[in-house]
Write a structure and sequence with these properties.
This protein is of the alpha/beta class. The protein has a single domain, classed as Aldolase class I (TIM Barrel). It has 13 helices and ten strands. The strands form two sheets. It has an eight-stranded parallel barrel with strand order 1-2-3-6-7-8-9-10, surrounded by seven helices. β9, α11 and β10 form a beta-alpha-beta unit. Bound molecules: 1,3-dihydroxyacetonephosphate (13P). 1,3-dihydroxyacetonephosphate binds next to α12.
């Protein structure tokens, strides 16, 4: 087993999933301001540290994706955040893209930036303790989109990113997110997501990526939020597995879904159904941001000193998702 493969497996095996706490300062500020908490560096650290010190971390959270600000912050005991995460047997990770910008010659689409200077930034993140990374490409579905140009250019960037990350002995999370915004059907989402993921792996193979040391972070197959054609969870599971079976090379050890704006319990239920249906060899787990943090953030915002109460809310969500990653979740357990 290669070192990269064993890091990947440590993060996603035995029902463990990933906590995506890598919101940029701009996004985190929006989340905090929405619950009337001032977005200061201290408050951003305080909420995140509360989650990272929760008791569910060691059993449920195999890896945490951090943002540049957080990975460099010092705790009161002078330790840094990666040391805290490692001390609870979880793996620190880092978002390394610098965001999605307008794609030249296709102004309604995005290209993710961040390749310039990446090799040096990766070395720094490795020294700070990171052992895996994330890069998100983003695609929207309309009649004309995603265009061949967006599919190709984002796949190319994801492959160049992955090569640099593996060169630095870290596991790249490859995240091509086909957004759920829009009025497309689930069938459209299936077709477009399959095409996007296939193209990503073609490019990863061209760039000689060790696929056993990669984690794919895709969207589930859903109908667009404005379509009014929401499909049942069982159908989500069936289509999602069909998509991944047809697009992901068998060497890839695992898949960790993003929640993408689904409600917390919905994201858990869909993951559980996916694992019930999963006959592939891929591990299928979660890499949730909003669907792991929303309730905890809301609770915390009412009393910033209630660490224990906040952790209780977070522990519950983490446990529910870990059960779903083992297809052992049921609705009754939510109460
Ligand atoms: P959500 O689960 O909130 O979609 O966030 C996951 C993520 O990391 C997006 O890049």
């Amino acid at each position: 087993m290669s070192e990269l493969n064993s890091i990947a497996l440590k993060i996603i095996s035995n029902g463990k999933g990933i906590l995506a706490a890598d919101e940029s300062t701009a996004t985190m500020s929006k989340r905090l301001e929405a619950v009337n908490v001032p977005s200061t560096p201290e408050n951003r650290l305080s909420f995140r540290q509360t989650l990272f010190s929760s008791s569910s971390m060691s059993d449920c959270i195999g890896g945490v994706i951090l943002y540049d600000e957080t990975i460099k912050q010092r705790l009161l005991n002078k330790k840094n955040v990666p040391e805290l995460i490692t001390s609870v047997n979880s793996v620190p990770g880092i978002k390394v893209d610098t965001g999605a910008k307008i794609l030249a010659n296709s102004p309604n689409e995005k290209i993710t930036e961040g390749l310039d200077g990446l090799r040096d930034r990766l070395k720094e993140y490795y020294k700070l303790g990171a052992r895996f990374t994330k890069w998100r490409g983003v695609y929207n579905i309309t009649k004309e989109h995603p265009s061949k140009l967006a599919i190709h250019s984002n796949a190319h960037a994801l492959a160049r990113y992955s090569a640099l990350v593996q060169e630095c002995n870290m596991v790249p999370i490859v995240e091509p997110e086909v957004l759920m915004d829009g009025n497309h059907s689930a069938q459209d989402c299936l077709i477009k997501t399959t095409e996007v993921i296939k193209r990503c792996f073609e490019e990863l193979i061209l760039h000689k990526i060790d696929l056993t040391g990669v984690i794919l972070k895709p969207n589930m197959i859903l109908a667009g939020t404005d379509s009014g054609k929401k499909i049942p969870g069982k159908e989500v599971a069936k289509l999602t597995i069909e998509c991944l079976k047809n697009s992901v090379p068998s060497e890839v050890p695992g898949i960790a879904f993003l929640s993408g704006g689904q409600a917390e319990v919905e994201a858990t239920e869909n993951l559980n159904l996916i694992n019930k249906e999963n006959k592939t060899n891929f591990i299928m787990t979660y890499s949730y941001g909003r669907a792991l943090q929303q309730s905890a953030l809301k609770y915390w915002s009412k009393n910033l000193n209630d660490i224990e109460g906040t952790q209780k809310v977070f522990n519950h969500r983490a446990k529910m998702n870990t059960l779903a990653a083992k297809s052992e979740w049921s609705k009754e357990l939510e109460n």
